UniProtKB/TrEMBL annotation:
UniProt name for this protein: Nephrocystin-3
InterPro entries reported for this sequence: NPHP3-like_N, NPHP3_ab_dom, NPHP3_hel, P-loop_NTPase, TPR-like_helical_dom_sf, TPR_NPHP3, TPR_rpt
Domain Nephrocystin-3 alpha-beta: 272-431
Coiled coil: 82-180
Native organism taxonomy: Eukaryota, Metazoa, Chordata, Craniata, Vertebrata
Residues covered by the Nephrocystin 3 helical domain: 656-815
Domain Nephrocystin 3-like N-terminal: 503-629
Record key words, sorted: Cell projection, Cilium, Coiled coil, Repeat, TPR repeat, Wnt signaling pathway
GO biological process, one term: Wnt signaling pathway
Domain Nephrocystin-3 TPR-repeats region: 826-1064
GO cellular component terms given for this protein: ciliary base; ciliary inversin compartment
Length: 1277
């Protein structure tokens, strides 16, 4: 025991102590430490331990090894068991996660279902309460009418009984007196026809009836026919309105006419051509001093004023020394100009004569004209100058030219021109009724907000879309495009697809790049607007990627606002980007149910929208029954999910269409291709990339633009080497560069196109002239003219933009190296706009371009600094670019709270420098803008402070009753509504309402806005009865103000439309132009502008007589409208003559039973009656009765009205016996058609009773007179 022989050597077989089988011996690891301790213990000093041996030491080691093995096995068992438990728990966890996800999905579905049911419940409750309110109102009105008629009938019956009783008493007394032999005859007491109790003479009074009954106009039904209470010239082809509320124009016809005017006419230019005040200046060497002073001193002032109002300003002038080389450009600029100014003294040159002939003589009504005539002691006009002034004077029939005579210094003359020009720009071009620039600016902003309620949107975006549509229409209607492209077959197919029964998915118009999709859609919209006036068209033309027109939130917001504008209100629209996209289908469904006709939405190049498939999810949902959607895409970029929709694919052009397009382009330049050239062209244009509309049009224009000296053959050879549109565009750019005269011009063209390419939305002409000071306007005009002819650039909303996406791509490849050099040009634009920002010139252009350019340059620091310029952010927000502003802050890396903090700090810093009323007013506007912005962000708690600060400043700086204070109260109340503090909101809304009523009156649009807000608040509180009353009042105010202004959208858009119509009529004389003049006269008539209405109605009559002939029915319409105008002005003789002429024409041209003939008859008879010519009026009323009987049948209420009118005339002529059967017949028709309880039945009964009483009095009076005369004769004898 304890010997070394007991140790097991490696390789020996041992037996398992636990009963296991034997196996090969293995080395057992033995720890060193125990051994070391054991050895050390043997050398310790002290007595030796008895019984200790080496064997005992080894056994201890074996015991440790066995314990270790046992523990290791237990650990392994424990570890495996725990691993199994962990895997089991993981499986359970995964299973629970799956169950949790399923339950969450079910919960979300249930929540959506609950929200949907809740909304349906709320809408059903709202409809229920509205129906109950309408029913209660109807019952109340019916009961009220019944009570009034019952009281009226009982009162009149009592009066008749009293009169009959008095009559019997008088007869009894008379008999008693006669029996006593007393003479009672007295002329003053006679009851003959001369007595004032008679009711047959016009204008006399009846002592028994209050007011004239038969002698005056009958009330209710008959009054509507006999009185011309409401004025009303006719719109073209309008129907007769026999029973009002308008006497001459039916309400439905007027609404239809207004709806047709709302459709944008494709050929009507804006009041300002492309949003630019273009001042064309014509001067001579003698007046160059005035010209120089004006350019240096006054031109910057006008530019600053126009840019502050959202427009561009540009002086256009061609110096005399090189004007001859710019003949085409001069003519084009005169056509585009907003105002022309002529500086003249005594002599003129040939170029000045040409410009004056074009601007002042040929088209004097085309635009405002200012003539500056320098006079003095040595002032002697030469022969050409005198002849020019005489021709100008002769052409100015309407005396519109503003003449400035001056004999002082040049600086004083320039001042006079400036004052006159400033007045023209403010009043005639911008429609601002003579206020200074600052007040106009603020007024304009307030007006925009008022027109659109709390919804903010950009008029520049709207104008860009209008101009895009107009340019597409002008291209499709030109001789070189529309007929040759074969669009009619596609238009017919589009009409068939639109007319398909619902439900109809969106219609897809597909084609390759440049295939003519935009031209087709614009042409189709133009035709549909003419043939379907009740259809509402909403269109959007998407521009190049990353531009404003391709922003999905702005697109949907614009379409929503355009949709809501047709239903009197656009309040309630959210500003949050996600909600705008989410709520558009709901608005579309709600408003389509209220629209009588169809709604068609057209989105061109929808595939250019950023993430179109994600943002346009509403296209996949089922559309309302009366809604159709048409979208256009390129074949290669169309999303896969949209390819299942009904598709109209534009095929490549046929050889015949290719040849016709090129021939049309060549005919414009008197150029004829040879047969060999035509064959080459036909062989070349056979592939898909060379037979699209854009390629062929560009090819034709490049062939004829041989200004560089190349022959047609050489130009054709170069063009035929290009196999696609991109390469052809690049060749066009090279040809244009080679055609320029100097290297400087080539450099400027290259730089300008690169700047346009690198910008957000383009650059303006004035910005190009600022960026290149050495560039002169004639050179720029020539360059733009050539690039426009080659389909490279165009002017849209005052900005130079690319006409097509391929042109933009060609410039990137040709001049920017595929976009690698864009950063340098963006930096140049950043420096330019930053310089304007440093000069405190924060225009809409700075707000549009600078933040976007800094974002593209990835300069977050400068971007944040530009956003913290409060006026930049205010400009973006007030123009509705909420999503864009929010995206900038997200790019900077700021959340909502930190962004609000940054704005607060900037405002406090700005407030320290504010002194004076103007600066405090701007500060209040900034605080209000910040509050509204935070409210739209969903931060009502942080929005309260800036809005309260804005309210405090306005109450202190202005006045507690100032309208701006009402605006602050309104915005603060809106925050409390969002915060669900309805009591505070109600109090603030009521204060704002009181201030608005005191400031504007009870029937102003601001009052309507406050009423709508209060109604919405009461709706949220379930106070449906109060909400309905306020909503009814608001609708009445809006309808009344809109009718007074003559336009659904308000006076501003009416003025703009009137100016458009006026410009349209300046072209050649056609029946359409005459019709437009007539409509324009009606619009001015409804504005109470009688002088302007007379001018346009007279011009319409003259043009119709020249174009259609003096006996055409349209001439009768103009005569009728002029007669109504003269009647309104109490010029009865002229009105009578015109009515008679109109009646003669319509008798010859129309059938005897035509409603228009009865229309003229009625109003001529009314005029005769008003002038006391009853004998002339009677046959007209009889003829009108016959026409109505033939047109409507003998039992129509209109026939009864005509019967009453004729009966009134008979009564006034004292033909009572003839009037009686007419009244009885009218009473029978009214009772059969309208019911016995209708008010007109009561009126007719009243008139009939008075007539019978009058007949009886007349009969009794004549008998009594004869008896008295016989008594007198007997007693006298």
């Amino acid at each position: 025991m304890g010997t070394a022989s007991s140790l097991v050597s490696p390789g020996e077989v041992i037996e398992d102590g636990y009963g296991g089988e034997g196996g090969e011996a293995c080395e057992i690891p033995v720890e060193v430490k125990p051994k070391a301790r054991l050895l050390r213990s043997s050398f310790r000093r002290g007595p030796r331990v008895i019984g200790a041996s080496f064997k005992s030491t080894g056994s201890v080691d074996l015991e440790y090894a066995a314990e270790y093995e046992r523990l290791r096995k237990e650990y392994e068992i424990f570890r495996v068991s725990k691993n199994n438990e962990i895997s089991s728990m993981q499986k359970k966890e995964a299973k629970l996660d799956e169950e949790n996800k399923r339950l969450r999905a079910e919960l979300q579905a249930l929540q959506k279902t609950y929200q949907k049911i809740l909304r349906e419940k709320e809408s059903a409750l709202e409809a229920k309460y509205q129906a109950m309110e309408r029913a209660a109102t109807f019952e109340h009105d019916r009961d009220k009418v019944k009570r009034q008629f019952k009281i009226f009938r009982e009162t009149k019956e009592k009066e008749i009984q009293d009169l009959l009783r008095a009559k019997r008493d008088l007869e009894a007394k008379l008999q008693q007196l006669q029996a006593q032999g007393i003479q009672v005859y007295d002329l003053n007491d006679s009851d003959s026809d001369d007595n004032q109790t008679t009711v047959t003479a016009a204008g006399t009074q009846c002592e028994y009836w209050s007011g004239g009954v038969l002698g005056s106009e009958p009330s209710m039904g008959s009054m509507m026919q006999l009185q011309q209470t409401f004025r009303g010239p006719e719109f073209a082809h309008s129907l007769i309105d026999v029973e009002g509320p308008f006497a001459n124009v039916g309400r439905d016809d007027w609404d239809a006419a207004v709806a047709s005017l709302l459709q944008v006419s494709p050929h009507v230019p804006q009041a300002l051509w492309s949003n630019t005040v273009r001042c064309y200046l014509i001067f001579t060497q003698e007046t160059k001093a005035e010209f120089d002073v004006f350019i240096k001193k006054h031109s910057p002032v006008l530019r600053r004023m126009c840019e502050g109002l959202g427009h561009f300003y540009l002086n256009v002038c061609f110096p005399e020394e090189n004007a001859a080389s710019y003949a085409a450009e001069r003519k084009q600029e005169i056509e585009r100009s907003s105002v022309c100014v002529l500086f003249v003294k005594s002599t003129v040159t040939s170029s000045v004569l040409e410009d004056c002939e074009e601007a002042f003589v040929k088209n004097p009504d085309g635009h405002p004209l200012v003539l500056y005539l320098r006079t003095g002691e040595d002032h002697n006009l030469t022969g050409p100058t005198r002849q020019l002034l005489e021709r100008v004077n002769a052409a100015d029939k309407a005396a519109k030219i503003k003449v400035v005579d001056h004999d002082g210094s040049a600086e004083e003359g320039a001042d006079l021109i400036f004052f006159q020009l400033e007045k023209v720009i403010k009043q005639e071009l911008l429609g601002l009724e003579g206020a200074d620039a600052d007040s106009m600016d603020s007024g304009m902003e307030e007006g925009r907000e008022e027109d659109s309620g709390d919804v903010l949107w950009d008029l520049h975006d709207e104008q860009e879309q209008i101009e895009s549509y107009q340019q597409a229409c002008s291209s499709s209607s030109s001789s070189s495009s529309s007929p040759q492209l074969g669009f009619q077959k596609y238009i017919d197919r589009l009409n068939d697809m639109i007319a398909a029964p619902p439900p109809t998915p969106p219609l897809l118009v597909s084609g390759g790049p440049g295939s003519g999709k935009s031209l087709l859609l614009s042409k189709w919209i133009e035709q549909q607007q003419k043939h379907s006036p009740n259809t509402l068209f909403l269109y959007h033309f998407v521009g190049r990627p990353l531009s404003t027109s391709s922003e999905p939130v702005l697109i949907i917001k614009r379409l929503t606002i355009k949709l809501l504008q047709h239903f009197w209100s656009i309040s309630g629209l959210s500003m949050e980007p996600s909600k705008i996209l989410e709520e558009f289908p709901r608005w579309l469904e709600r408003l389509s149910a209220r629209h009588q006709g169809n709604i068609i939405i057209i989105i061109d190049s929808i595939d250019q929208i950023q993430q179109a498939e994600r943002h346009m999810k509403w296209l996949i949902d089922p559309l309302p029954v009366n809604v159709r959607v048409v979208v256009s895409v390129k074949v290669e970029t169309c999303p896969q999910a949209w390819r299942l929709w009904p598709t109209l694919h534009l095929d490549p052009l046929s050889p015949k269409e290719v040849r016709s397009i090129v021939d049309a382009e060549c005919q414009g330049m008197d150029l004829q291709l040879t047969k060999d050239q035509e064959k080459k062209l036909e062989r070349h244009c056979r592939s898909a990339s060379t037979c699209n509309a854009l390629y062929v049009t560009l090819l034709g224009r490049m062939i004829i633009s041989s200004v560089s000296g190349l022959s047609v053959e050489r130009s054709l050879e170069q063009c035929l080497q290009c196999q696609d549109t991109m390469s052809l565009y690049r060749l066009a750019l090279k040809m244009t560069l080679n055609s320029l005269n100097t290297d400087r011009e080539r450099h400027i063209m290259r730089e300008m196109l690169c700047l346009v390419c690198a910008s957000h939305n383009g650059v303006s002409e004035s910005e190009v002239l600022d960026l290149f000071p050495e560039l002169e306007l004639p050179v720029l005009s020539t360059l733009l003219y050539r690039l426009n002819r080659l389909c490279v650039v165009t002017l849209r909303c005052g900005l130079i933009r690319f006409q097509h996406l391929q042109a933009w791509e060609a410039v990137r490849l040709e001049f920017l190296g595929g976009g690698s050099s864009s950063a340098a040009y963006r930096e140049k634009l950043i420096q330019y706009f930053s310089q304007q920002l440093g000069q405190d010139r924060v225009t809409w252009r700075v707000a549009d371009e600078l933040p976007w350019l800094l974002q593209q340059q990835e300069d977050r620091t400068k971007l944040q600094l530009s956003l913290l310029n409060l006026f930049v952010s205010q400009n973006l927000y007030k123009r509705g670019h909420f999503s864009e502003l929010l995206a900038y802050w997200q790019y900077v890396g700021k959340d909502k709270s930190s962004m609000a903090t940054e704005y607060f700090d900037s405002l406090r810093h700005y407030e320290k420098s504010c002194e004076g009323e103007d600066s405090m007013t701007k500060l209040a506007n900034l605080y209000e803008t910040l509050g509204r912005f935070l409210k739209d962000l969903g931060l009502p708690s942080q929005a309260v402070a800036p809005l309260q600060r804005s309210l405090e400043i306005r109450e202190t700086a202005l006045d507690p009753d100032h309208p701006s204070v009402a605006c602050s109260l309104h915005q603060l109340a809106a925050v409390y509504v969002q915060w669900k503090k309805y009591g505070n909101a109600e109090q603030l809304y009521k204060q704002a309402l009181e201030i608005s009523e005191n400031a504007y009156g009870a029937e102003h649009a601001s009052v309507a806005r406050e009423l709508e807000s209060l109604a919405a608040l009461y709706q949220k509180q379930n106070k449906y009865e109060q909400a309905e009353k306020l909503r009814k009042r608001s609708v009445k105010i809006r309808q009344k103000t809109a009718r007074q202004k003559g336009h659904m959208y308000g006076f501003t858009l009416l003025r703009r439309r009137a100016l458009q119509l006026e410009e349209l009529t300046l072209g050649k004389e056609t029946s359409d132009s005459a019709k437009t003049l007539n409509e324009l006269g009606v619009l001015y008539y409804l504005q109470n502008n009688m002088d302007a209405a007379k001018l346009f109605l007279s011009r319409s009559l003259e043009m119709r007589q020249r174009v259609l002939g003096a006996d055409h029915p349209d001439c009768a319409q103009s005569l009728n409208n002029l007669a109504a105008l003269h009647t309104e002005r109490r010029e009865y003789e002229t009105a009578e003559d015109m009515y008679e002429r109109a009646l003669d024409i319509r008798k010859k041209a129309l059938s005897p039973d035509h409603p228009s003939l009865a229309y003229t008859l009625k109003h001529l008879a009314m005029l005769y009656k008003r002038r006391g010519k009853l004998e002339k009026a009677m046959p007209l009323y009889e003829l009108s009765l016959e026409i109505r009987e033939k047109s409507f049948g003998p039992k129509h209420p209109s026939v009864a009205t005509a019967l009453v009118n004729l009966a009134v005339i008979y009564c006034q002529l004292k033909k009572h016996s003839e009037a009686l059967p007419l009244y009885e017949r009218a009473l029978k028709v009214y009772e059969d058609s309208l019911g016995r309880s209708h008010p007109r039945v009561g009126e007719t009964l009243k008139n009939l009773a008075v007539l019978r009483y009058s007949i009886w009095r007349c009969t009794f009076g004549r008998a009594r007179t004869l008896r008295l005369k016989s008594f007198s004769f007997m007693f006298g004898k």
